[in-house]
Design goal:
Elements: E1 2-5, E2 7-10, E3 13-20, H1 36-55, H2 63-72, H3 75-86, H4 91-107, H5 112-115, H6 117-131, E4 145-149, H7 154-158, E5 165-170, H8 178-186, E6 190-192, H9 197-200, E7 206-210, E8 215-218, H10 222-236, E9 245-246, E10 252-259, H11 264-270, E11 276-280, H12 294-307, E12 313-316, H13 344-349, H14 351-364, E13 370-374, H15 380-399, E14 409-413, H16 416-420, H17 422-428, E15 432-434, H18 436-444, H19 462-478, E16 482-484, H20 495-500, E17 505-508, H21 513-522
Parallel strand pairs: 3-4, 4-5, 5-6, 10-11, 10-17, 11-12, 12-13, 13-14, 14-15, 15-16, 16-17
Antiparallel strand pairs: 1-8, 2-6, 3-7, 7-8, 9-10
Helix pairs in contact: 1-2, 1-6, 3-4, 4-6, 11-12, 12-14, 14-15, 17-19
Length: 526
């Protein structure tokens, strides 16, 4: 038995036979059988399909493929490829040359978030080159294999069929990469950064993947295999727990779902969600030339509210900015979009976009308990202004004779400044929701997608726990519920810390709910 240690990438355990990723891709010697324009169309269709499939389970992560679609259709990329073809270069060489040229430009950018996009460019290049040949990039491996590769891209993870893949392991990559974020959301256990696992194995070798510990066992001995097999069988038999769960020391915990599609409530209910902690409304605004009107938004929010059968639903207003480009909302590029004009800042200055959405959310409350939540609140003044606009919209609807019940209005806490003034926000808001992904990266001034600073974004660092503790204490002091809705809420090692800090609501991707409820029911933190 050989044990290899890398970086925990995606929680969970998987056991299976090794499948080398390179064996599943079209051979470089295969004949190029399609012209560029046809390969371009097929690649675009692939990305749309991947985005839609991922959005059903991980709506936020599906934005990775929306961004890739924009990059694929960028005139600079397509123009560069066509220019090279016109100059006599073979199609595949023209694609790789244009991709390499743009990758160099991205690598020289100062913004680490934009530099990270070079990986997406490489993914697009692979997809285009693969589509010059058939079959597509995601051929079918033997059932329940462990995908092993030097590097995996987002489209590789999105193309993994859970009936055929149990998990993955890679030489390269970090827990903060797009591929890792996507894998966690889709529930594939995996380990990154193993350096040279591809040197040690042959196709068909038995592997154990421990994605939580960051360990891989090659040719495990009988006792190790028995121990891990027992753990995977326990997980496979997890019951769907309906209703709130209680810790072993008697504290009631609500486990809700994060969704980003009108049909997401169905999966949330199937997994035992106690409600919806965050509806990411960006799905209504993507890939369209005009903004969705109030009636169209109402129809989607009504479907979600009715689908949850009386359980509470929190709908977050549009969280857009130049880092999340939307065709229907053209914005000027910014030097540092993560710190720029986005979220509530954009909404407050664009009432023609903000108010129709707020009215649609308020009207949806007639079909189930619905709350409004504002993203990227940095100051009390921002929250008060947004709440005032929402309350004015509510009064207008009631004057029109619409029967609108009381609607709770809350705020995301994802900027350190809002955590530091949590006491003031808790006095005014009906609830607080901590978005740990952004809170952590802003607390350390470290982009979570940048592998060079990934080690700084530790969710259990004292600085992060203090910020969360301040928010939790403010909520208790004013009798306002506080939830955690970032990746930290699904991390088995972080959950005990959150509960010790007084958090009693967690909101995660639906796929994590059964295991999370089971873990909570066994915790005794006294």
């Amino acid at each position: 038995m050989l044990k290899l240690t890398g970086m925990p990438g995606s929680y969970g355990i998987a056991i299976g036979k090794a499948v080398l990723g390179e064996d599943l891709r079209p051979s470089a010697q295969a004949e190029v059988s399609l012209p560029f324009e046809e390969a371009l169309r097929l690649a675009r269709d692939d990305l749309i399909r991947l985005r839609n499939e991922v959005a059903a389970h991980a709506p936020h992560e599906a934005e990775i493929f929306s961004a890739q679609l924009l990059m694929l259709d960028d005139p600079m990329l397509q123009g560069g490829i066509r220019r090279r073809i016109a100059q006599g270069e073979p199609v595949e060489k023209a694609i790789s040359g244009a991709i390499a040229e743009l990758t160099r430009l991205f690598r020289e950018l100062k913004d680490p978030l934009l530099r990270e996009r070079q990986t997406d460019l490489e993914d697009i290049g692979r997809r285009l080159s693969g589509r010059l040949r058939k079959p597509p990039l995601s051929a079918c491996p033997p059932e329940q294999g462990i995908l092993v590769a030097r590097e995996l891209f987002p489209s590789d993870i999105a193309g993994m069929n859970p009936e055929q893949y149990a998990g993955f392991a890679t030489d390269l990559g970090t827990p903060t990469s797009h591929a890792a974020i996507l894998a966690r959301s889709l529930g594939f256990p995996g380990v990154f950064g193993l350096k040279d696992i591809t040197r040690y194995l042959r196709p068909g070798d038995i592997l154990i993947i421990d994605g939580t510990a960051g360990a891989v066992y090659l040719d495990p001995d009988r006792e190790t295999l028995r121990r891990y097999a027992s753990r995977t069988e326990d997980t496979a038999r997890l019951p769907i727990l309906r209703g709130p769960v209680m810790t072993a020391h008697g504290v009631l915990i609500l486990v809700k779902a994060n969704i980003g599609s009108a049909g997401g409530s169905r999966q949330a209910l199937e997994m035992g969600a106690d409600g919806i902690g965050v509806v990411r409304t960006e799905f209504l605004f993507q890939d369209r030339e005009r903004l969705p009107d109030e009636e169209e938004q109402l129809a989607a929010y009504r479907q979600i509210a009715e689908g949850m059968e009386g359980r509470p639903v929190i709908i977050r207003t549009l969280d857009a900015g130049s880092d999340k480009p939307l065709p229907c909302l053209p914005l000027e590029p910014e030097a540092n979009p993560a710190l720029g004009w986005r979220g509530i800042r954009l909404s407050l200055e664009m009432p023609d976009t903000f108010l129709p959405q707020v009215r649609a959310i308020l009207r949806a409350s007639a079909f189930g308990p619905v709350g409004v939540m504002f993203p990227m609140i940095a100051t009390l003044e921002e929250f008060l202004k947004a709440r005032e606009m929402a309350e004015s919209a509510l009064q207008e609807l009631r004057r029109q004779g619409r029967d609108i019940p009381p609607v709770p209005i809350g705020t995301m806490i994802e900027i350190p400044s809002s955590a530091l003034i949590a006491d003031a926000l808790a006095r005014e808001a009906d609830f607080l929701s901590i978005g740990t992904n952004d809170l952590i990266q802003y607390a350390f001034a470290a982009d979570r997608a940048n592998p060079k600073v990934a080690s700084l974004t530790d969710p259990r660092h004292e600085a992060v726990l203090r910020l969360i503790g301040m928010v939790s204490e403010a909520g208790r002091a004013h009798g306002k519920p506080v939830s955690v809705c970032g990746e930290m809420a699904a991390d088995p090692e972080s959950v005990p810390f959150l509960l010790r800090l007084g958090i009693t609501e967690l909101s995660v991707s639906p796929v994590f709910i059964p295991a999370l409820k089971r873990q909570i029911s066994k915790l005794d933190l006294v």
